[in-house]
Write a structure and sequence with these properties.
The complex is a heterodimer of chains A (113) and B (116).
Chain A lengths: L4 E3 L2 E4 L5 E6 L6 E7 L5 E8 L2 E5 L7 E4 L6 E5 L8 E8 L7 E2 L3 E5 L1
Parallel strand pairs in A: 2-11
Antiparallel strand pairs in A: 1-3, 3-8, 4-5, 4-9, 5-6, 7-8, 9-10, 9-11
Chain B lengths: L2 E3 L4 E5 L4 E3 L2 E3 L5 E8 L6 E7 L7 E2 L2 E6 L4 E6 L8 E9 L8 E2 L3 E6 L1
Parallel strand pairs in B: 2-12
Antiparallel strand pairs in B: 1-4, 3-9, 5-6, 5-10, 7-8, 8-9, 10-11, 10-12
Classes of the chains: A mainly beta (113), B mainly beta (116).
């Protein structure tokens, strides 16, 4: 069965550094998403992406964050000038169409030191 | 704004028994989808089951079934014949179909432990 794949599985970064989290969505999916889960808390929506542009974003997704689909397969989340509170599990998801089930990757655990 | 509430932070069940996880939600939308996702200790998020609000029939997926009460805005998950591999966090999630919103709204989760 097709899967969403995320790399790396764990990223450790010094505070203030930039980090790029990578995702390869399922190949025939058109909608891509990033979610965040701070340890012990609920999963929170960050951003959705369709047709090479952001279609919806949450209040969490400020100027520190950006997303990109640099080629036909990858979908990236860039976090500039990381802060301690950015430490979380970041999940990428994709879906065939709006309101179709979103399929999640295994997540990237981001630790900011 | 939509909210999803899971009132049971933790539950446990004996292997082979049946357990029901509760979820309520609040929305003014009339058309929406509800989901249950499972997150085992490995941390991946796995879709368990989906319910479309306009369908009266409760969704089932093998040992997993839901009790969807639209008027009460309730969406509980029943796991029959519980297995050790069912041990996980279970998240209830909502997505509205009107207005073009694409975000899943999650509850805080219920930690289910299946005991041998």
């Amino acid at each position: 069965e097709p899967e969403v794949t995320q790399t790396p599985s764990h990223q450790v970064t010094q505070m203030g550094q930039e980090v790029i989290l990578r995702c390869v969505p399922i190949s025939n999916h058109l909608y891509f998403y990033w979610y965040r889960q701070i340890l012990g808390q609920k999963v929170e929506f960050l951003v959705s992406f369709y047709n090479n542009e952001i279609s919806e974003k949450s209040e969490i997704f400020d100027d520190q964050f950006s997303v990109e689909r640099p080629d036909g397969s990858n979908f990236t989340l860039k976090i500039r000038s990381t802060k301690l509170e950015d430490s979380a599990m970041y999940f990428c998801a994709s879906s065939e169409a709006i309101n179709q089930p979103q399929h999640f990757g295994d997540g990237t655990r981001l630790s900011i030191l | 704004a939509q909210t999803v509430t899971q009132s049971q932070p933790e539950m446990s069940v004996q292997e082979a028994e049946t357990v029901t996880l509760s979820c309520t939600y609040d929305t003014s939308e009339s058309n929406y989808y509800l989901f249950w996702y499972k997150q085992p200790p490995s941390r991946q998020m796995i879709l368990v089951i989906r319910q479309e609000a306009y369908k009266q029939q409760n969704a089932t997926e093998n040992r997993f079934s839901v009790n969807f009460q639209k008027a009460a805005k309730s969406f509980s998950l029943k796991i029959s014949d519980s297995q050790l591999g069912d041990t996980a966090m279970y998240f209830c999630a909502f997505i509205a179909t009107q207005g073009g919103s694409e975000k899943l709204v999650f509850g805080k989760g219920t930690k289910l432990t299946v005991n041998p």
